[in-house]
Amino acid sequence: MAKKKQKAKTENPYIPKPYKVLEYYRETDDNFTITINMKVKHDPGQFVQLSLPGFGEAPISICSDSEEYIKLNIREVGTVTKALGNLKKGDTLLVRGPYGRGYPMQYLTGNNVLIIGGGCGVAPLKGIIDYVENHRDDFKEVMLFLGYRSPNDVLFKRELEEWRNKYHLQVTVDEEAHGEMCYDAKHGFVTDVLRSTPINNENKIVFVCGPPIMMKYVIEVLKEKGFNDKQIFLSAERLMYCAMGVCCHCMIKGKFTCVDGPVFRYDEMKELSDE
Amino acid sequence: MEKKRLNEFLLQLSKSYELIAPVKTDVVRFERVKNPETIHLEKNAYFPLKEYFFKKEEVLFTFTGNKIQETTLSSPKRAFFGIRKCDLNAIHHQDIVFMKDTQDPYYIAQRKNSLLLGYHCPSAPSPYCFCGSLDLIDFFDLMFYDKEDHFLVEVGSEKGKKLAEKYGKLFSPSTRLMTQADKVIPGADRLDKKDISAFYDHKDWKKGADICLSCGACTALCPTCYCFEIHDEVKAENVNKGERKRSWSSCQLQEFTRVAGDHVFREDREERFKHRIYHQLEYFKEKYGVQMCVGCGRCIDGCPTRIDFVDIINKMEHGKEETESKN
Fold first, then answer.
1. Closest partner residue to B256 among A51, A81, A249, by Cβ?
2. Cα A174 off chain centre by
3. Nearest-angstrom CA–CA distance, A74 and A60
4. Could you tell me the residue ranges of all domains in chain B?
5. Under CATH, to which class is A12-99 assigned?
6. Which tens digits make up the pLDDT trace of B83-93?
7. Per-domain residue ranges of chain A
8. Residue closest to B206 by CA, chosen among B51, B315, B87
9. CB pairs below 8 Å between A and B: how many?
């Protein structure tokens, strides 16, 4: 009888479900990518709440485009993410989601795609790259500008060659490389190469994700090149607990990053930006 | 209802419900009441009712390794008596968040077996009250209007109607219709109704922020504030076992927006102070169509430096909006 009653009830949204780690790949000293067997429809730019009981939950954006699995790129900066770093292939972790409003890809078809990422901000953008690859006929030319702090921080090395062959790719590193400079990375900020590359704003949509200061300067350069606010999509980072628009930690003025975002079009973001 | 009948009514009610009402101990607070004579109706409770529904700390589930054990959720039948109009509306606003916008099983479990019996303030019980400045609604099962020698009792729900019928002997029928005048609380409209959206960059917010101690008393005492955080706790004797808990949190603290890597999004006290006021008076309304604040004045009364945001807003004038330019 008790069991019957539970079935009739709506599901408790705070209870995560267990999934298995199918692959674990170390990207850099403090960053790794895992693939888990979560089969779920989602948009690029959406995120999940990953948890390890005893350590807590962390919101992580999905960096793949498949209904068979999801890939998550994680930087070890907090208690939970550091604990997640110790996972191995075959381990179990708990997940709830996906949450949030991702990139509205289905409304952006027919455009050229410009992707600009900084550091672990490249992770959600990789979801777009995979999406575009899966819907190649829907989009035209693809340009990628990816900036990292140093050659040791470059993410998605396994994918870089493929991206270089298929798209216009430029990688930058802020710090000069000691020894071998791999990945054909240029020394400098991502904004420098963006500025010096001839790009017009015609039929283009731009996806930007990275540290707040990097996004600010990228937008300046885009403005110089004549892009309007509605062509630019940003992904915001905030502290989150519930991911359902209740706990209020992720509020930016009246908007909830977890349900109204994390992806915002720049004209929406601008209104929120003086916070 | 004759006033002398009230205690008899509450006593009878307490046979089938846990009776919870304001009593004066160190301060006035809502507590389980066995003897209705101890009920205190002069002042409003220092602490709101919030904790009875949205608990200060709550176990979401327990775990052993990756195995989750859901907690059993239940609450006794409870009758809350002596709730003021502000606190009734606060419950209404939390219902919107936890029962309409989302289906929060923890809140619903605490809330569903409750009876809301209001006490209508004959006049503002505190100098900080401003419920009259907000568009509060009738939200109760029964409301008791204090009319010197008797209570005029208004039925506000089906539940309330059944209750009045069940204890019909204690009530005497009234032919008097409720008027708008009955619902006014004298002395409780001190917040000027003005559009504060134009004042976001006003220099006067500093008046409050400068003397804020970032203690979080305002949000803890607020009957509507519903922000929370979620953390895991493990047992010292076995770290595989533990609980995932949620607890109240305060937007007035830096921790509220601190992300891994130590970046704080609302670092200044002024930004945090403004965020609280704008969430109360604007953002909640943008999302749910009603202002969150109910005008109880507890955040002012309980503030160690008595930051009076009502006074700050009342004194704000157009043409004096500019702060030192930010960019």
1. A249
2. 20
3. 7
4. 3-45+72-183, 196-315
5. mainly beta
6. 999 999 999 99
7. 12-99, 105-272
8. B315
9. 110
